[in-house]
Amino acid sequence: MNHPFPLSRLSILGAGLIGGSVALAARRLALCRELVLYSREPEKETVRAAGIADLVTDDPADAVRKAELVVVALPIAAMGAILHAIRGALEPKAIVTDTASVKLPAMQLLQENLEGRARWVGSHPMSGGERSGFAFARSNLFEGAVAILTPPETADREALALVEAFWLALGCRVVHLPASEHDRRVAAVSHLPHLLAAALVCSMDSEALEVAGPGFRDVTRIAAASPEMWNEILLANRENVLLALRSFLARLEEASESLRDGTSSAVKNLLREASQRRLSFDQRPS
Fold this sequence. Notes:
Oligomer: single chain
CATH topology of the largest domain: Rossmann fold
Shape: elongated
CATH class of the largest domain: Alpha Beta
Number of domains: 2
C-alpha cells in the first residue's frame, strides 16, 4: 500500500524525547491533518505551549478517538495501563504502533489489550539521546536512523504497510525482525553499551576524570541518560543482556590475560578486529 499522507488524525501517547520528536517531525512533514498528543502533568502545559498539536490532553482515551494511527511512545511499565485505557475508544480500523526498546513484553501487551479491537505493529526507532523529555525533542531525530518493525505473526498487511511508510517518511531505514531477534540484537548494540558506559564512568576516580578528554566523553556520553528508564530496559531484556555481557567479558578476559603475561597478541588482535569492524560500520549504506 502506498499510503496517501496526510493521515486524517495522528495520535501520539507520550510527549517525551521520542514522542515529542515524532510529533515535531510529523507536523513539519505534514504527515497528518490533525495531531493529538497525550501528556501528563507537569509537561502537558509545556507541550501545549509549543503549539504543534491540535489537542493536548491528559486523557488517553480522548487522545485516540477517531485516530487513524496511534503511536505509543511510553515506557513499558506504563504501556499496559494506557493500552487498557484506550482500547474501548479506538476505531475498529485504527492502527497502533509503539516505540518500546524491548519488544517481546511490548508485543504481549499490545496483543493482550488490542486483540479484536484494533490493528497493531511493533516498532522501535533506534534513535534517542542522553537527555530525556519534550524539551530535547527535535524534528530531525529519526533522519538516518534504523526503525525496526516487529509485526505479529498474523499482521494486517495494511497496518504493516502504513507503519513502515510512516517511519520511512520520518527519515528512517526500516528493518523487519521477529520480536525475540530484535531483543537479542538490540541487547548487544544498545542495552549492553549503556551498562558498559555506566560501569566505565563509575570505575574512574575524580582525579582521572579531571584529565578526561573527548575520547572519554564520546565513549561515556550515554551514561548520562535517565537511570530509571535504563534500569527498566535492562531488567526487561536481562536474559539477552546477560548473553551479550558474557561474550564481552570473554573477549575482555583474553585481553586481560595478554596484558598480565606481557604479550601483545590477544590485545593486538582485539584492536585490529575492532578497528576493521568499526570502519566497516561507518561505511555501511544509510
